Amino acid sequence: MRNEREGGSFAGGRVLAAREGGVGWVTFNRPERHNALSVEMWDAIPRALDRLESDPDTRVLVLRGAGGKAFVSGADISQFEEKRASAAEQSGYDQVVGAANRRLATTRLPTIAMIRGYCIGGGLGVALHCDLRIATRESRFGIPAARLGVGYGHSGLRRLMEVVGPSFAMEIFFTARQFSAEEALAMGLVNRVVDDGDLESSVADVCARVADNAPLTIAAVKTCVRELLKGPALDRDLCEAVVRACFDSADYVEGRRAFLEKRKPVFKGK
Question: How many C-beta atoms lie closer than 10 Å to residue 135's C-beta?
Fold first, then answer.
């Protein structure tokens, strides 16, 4: 794989996309506001993902916040009077936010939320729509909707319930308090908690392991997990098709040969 940086700048430079080796980085770049997401930033998320996913050398995506104080501290409350002052305006806002989270949830690539500092409200929603979440011990999590009078519909609750279950989801909403990283780990909100100085190396280790593995297998697992979460509405034909594609691939041949030859496989996603 090539090692040069590729990507782009979106929403006036507040959302950055770059590839380094096999890792695609999406950076929320608004440190002076703890990376609070404006409508323009929400709208930029799908475009940043499109840019990185279209590069065949990208094997894994990592989302992070700039500045060292926050992953994302939430939605930009200063826009609420202009963008969310009524139910009608909220509907339009929800469409933009929903499109961003759906695009993140359905990308074929594995995704990791690299969390340092505040991961609050809409920022927690972004992290939840990633496949994995790795956080520092000092990170804080919460959804303060009940302190703002904000309503959350089924689309905003579903992913949280899938990750932590209904009881913890209700505690997060009912109390509207901030939870520590250790509490988040205990409820399954994050996959791993590490020391602040180990965050970059821990994420790099996971990225390297994922990037070395067969992309079609990873994509098939993502597809099947997503379908299984639909319950009876799951698309069995789709699940069977992505599994067949793995067995019909050149990567499967490479994996078998590498095992027999006692060498590291070189997968190409084909």
Answer: 30
